[in-house]
Amino acid sequence: MRVLFAGTPEVSLPTLEALIASEHDVVGVLTRADARRGRGRTLHPSPVAAVARQAGLDVRTPATLRGEEGQEVGDWVRSLKADVAVVVAYGRLVPADLLDVPEHGWLNLHFSLLPAWRGAAPVQRAIIAGEEVTGACVFRLEEGLDTGPVYGRITEAISTTDTSGDLLERLARDGAPLVLDVLRSVEDGNAHPEPQDDTLATLAPMLSAADGLVRWDDPALTIDRRIRGVCPAPGAHTTYLGARFRLGPVTPVPEVTDLLPGQLRATKREVLVGTGGCAIRLGQVAPAGRSWMPADAWARGARPEMGTVLGAPAPASDDGEGTV
Predict the structure, then answer these.
(1) What is the 3-state secondary structure (H, E, C) of 119-188?
(2) Are the beta carbons of 242 and 249 closer than 8 angstroms?
(3) I want to staple 227 with a disulfide (CB 3.0 to 4.6 A). Which of 10, 73, 236, 302 is the partner?
(4) Per-residue pLDDT tens for 45-70?
(5) What is the number of other CB atoms lying within 10 angstroms of the CB of residue 251?
């Protein structure tokens, strides 16, 4: 089949690469415009754009699918005469007037077991919620948010150490063969899409930096899941002496229950923090303005005082102001 592909980040690549290597003809690629990154703020292509251009594919990077630029993209999509469009984390809504342009529509690889976790952050929200099983689905795009009929699905266990980055990587890899299976069934006329039950739907809105703020009076498992869910982005954080302090995945320590929420206890081999339940052991940390390092290495240099509380306001300076 003639396939139009739409995707942007690293998780889109396994499907794009599988399509390029398959019997299908990738006739065009839609991806996000080049973005500025790094200290020099230089322009970089998306991972999909880089791979697609190397493969000699026709790549378009519109800043918007609306207005005059959107009209130009729409004309290009129609000119491709694609049989189907495949979408993996493109990052833009497809206008309604383009949804029926390919004969078999736009088929989206979504990283949840729909109708669970409709939205931009399904893997992150599933981990934060403490789910034990998730998966990936291929469904047909329609005007509603991830509401279209499902053509196929796979399941994936969520381990107690999975970050959202770990889980997304596995789902992206295992989702690529699912996409090819669905395309074969569509081409052969054997596809049997199933409508979703909207009464079972849950939402997975995009994460913000606020979602990464650790609340130390939460139970240890809740904190553990939140940190893993926002890792690597937008990332977990608290404060140390009033300055931002980033946190990597942690380990609950059920046998330690004598620390108050946020209270630090640092030894030569570990750094423990109290929660609303048992303590947690810090893994990698990144103090303000510094790179990631093991928590015990940070503590040996910072020498936090016993009883210091993460998340507490900065201590008042002893400069004599206000005294008489």
Answers:
(1) CCCHHHHHHHCCCCEEEEEEEECCCCCCCCCEEEEEEEECCCCCCHHHHHHHHHHHHHHHHHHHHHHHHH
(2) no
(3) 236
(4) 999 999 999 999 999 999 888 888 88
(5) 15
The burial of 112, by beta-carbon neighbours within 10 Å (0-12 exposed, 13-18 middle, 19 or more buried), is given as: buried
Sign of CA dihedral 166, 170, 173, 176: negative
Residue 147 is encoded by which pair of tokens?
A: 């509401």
Angle ∠(22,27,31) on CA atoms, nearest 5? 100
List % helix, strand, coil for the chain (3-state, nearest 5).
30, 25, 45
Q: Which two tokens stand for residue 54?
A: 């190397």
Regarding pTM above 0.85, the answer is yes
- Burial (Cβ within 10 Å: 0-12, 13-18, ≥19) of residue 111: buried
Q: Which residues are annotated as a binding site for (6S)-5,6,7,8-tetrahydrofolate?
A: 112-115
